[in-house]
Specification:
Elements: H1 4-10, E1 16-20, H2 27-41, E2 49-53, H3 56-70, E3 78-81, H4 82-93, E4 104-106, H5 108-125, H6 141-156, H7 161-170, H8 174-192, E5 195-197, H9 198-210, H10 212-221, E6 224-227, H11 235-245, E7 251-255, H12 270-273, H13 275-278, E8 289-291, E9 294-295, H14 300-310, H15 321-328, E10 331-332
Parallel strand pairs: 1-7, 1-8, 2-3, 2-6, 4-5, 6-7, 9-10
Length: 338
């Protein structure tokens, strides 16, 4: 049984909607029921629904629960991680001459290894003029890891290596210039080897989706997009979503601004805080926000303890104050001894 707040999300007519959902408030159930409602009650074809999240385990769980509710074992709404969906886009829409084989995805250690190899040879290539202060570090693991992290951040922001070099020239930072030129060279080499890291994968998928022709194709195919753990998105993923489901299209995202803990890998809670303004309705109004307000996972003792911590957190200023209060002060439906 859904409570009134969950039912309001499921019954949302159409267009963008942000759901604030803390732990134990029935977020996953609500997302599953929203998909089921679109398919069973509104007649939407299952293949026109896209569900995105951030781990294979979560994607698998969402897919299983939706399939069980719809009574389907095979064909049904697709649930992907962001990276698996982006990989599919790259394979489908990339220039066939770019990848003669499906691109290989590099893990962080694999990427570091290749960057270390490139660093050892970067002076000989003639494309990178490293400052003397950096030369002793060229053979170290630390520099390769820092350059990988820099590239991930650059791509998350929708920038290019040339932007890093240009910033170095503008601010008289020769190490930035060298880093930008090295990153550009590394992309050329990895392209030649048919390899991508995860940040580059999302960047290239975003470039594909923002192409007007590809965007029109994907929007014809997709009528409803659902995103779980929206507080963990980075700017590139938000840009991808806007191309897929912006302009007042049917988009349901759920997240918890108090659980934004992945800033070290590029996640930016501002994606959630700015959602209402970035994803406006078809009439141009800010997207509505609804909190889930009933906790079932644990009882009042744990709720009181968790709320004491939550109330010390900074208020997410871009969200309506009353909505934030409702989100941070949920009712408890669990047994009183739990």
């Amino acid at each position: 049984m859904l409570d009134l707040h969950q039912r309001a999300v499921v019954d949302h007519d159409a267009g963008p909607l942000l759901v604030l959902a803390g732990p134990g408030t029935g977020k996953t159930t609500t997302l599953v029921e929203a998909v089921v409602d679109r398919v069973e009650r509104r007649g939407l074809a299952p293949e026109r629904v896209l569900v995105l999240t951030f781990s294979r385990k979560a994607a698998g769980e969402l897919h299983r629960r939706i399939a069980a509710r719809l009574g389907r074992t095979t064909a049904g709404p697709a649930a992907y991680t962001f990276h698996s969906y982006c990989y599919g886009l790259v394979r489908r829409f990339s220039d066939p001459t770019l990848y003669t084989q499906p691109p290989a995805l590099l893990s962080a250690p694999e990427h570091d290894l290749r960057l270390r190899e490139l660093l050892r040879h970067s002076r000989d290539s003639g494309r990178v003029d490293w400052p003397h202060s950096v030369l002793p570090a060229l053979a170290t693991r630390g520099l390769a890891a820092e350059l990988r992290a820099l590239m991930a951040r650059v791509r998350a922001l929708g920038l290019d290596p040339d932007d890093v070099a240009a910033a170095g020239l503008a601010h008289d930072r020769p190490e930035w210039v060298a880093a930008g030129r090295f990153l550009a060279e590394s992309l050329d080499v990895l392209d030649g080897q048919g390899m991508l890291d995860y940040a580059e994968l999302v960047h290239r998928a975003t470039v594909i989706v923002t192409d007007p022709e590809h965007r029109a194709t994907l929007r014809r195919e997709l009528a409803f997009v659902v995103v779980d753990e929206y507080q963990d998105t980075d700017p590139a993923q938000v840009a991808l979503l806007h191309a897929l489901a912006g302009d007042g299209r049917d988009l349901l995202v759920a997240g918890d601004p108090d659980q934004s803990i992945y800033g070290f890998r590029g996640a930016d809670v501002r994606g959630l805080l700015d959602f209402a303004d970035r994803f406006r309705t078809a009439s141009g109004d800010p997207a509505p926000t609804r909190p889930l307000r009933t906790i079932r996972r644990f009882g009042p003792t744990l709720v009181r303890a968790s709320r004491q911590v939550a109330h010390r957190l900074p208020a997410p200023g871009r969200l309506d104050a009353e909505t934030v209060r409702a989100f941070r002060d949920p009712e408890c439906a669990a047994p009183p001894f739990s």
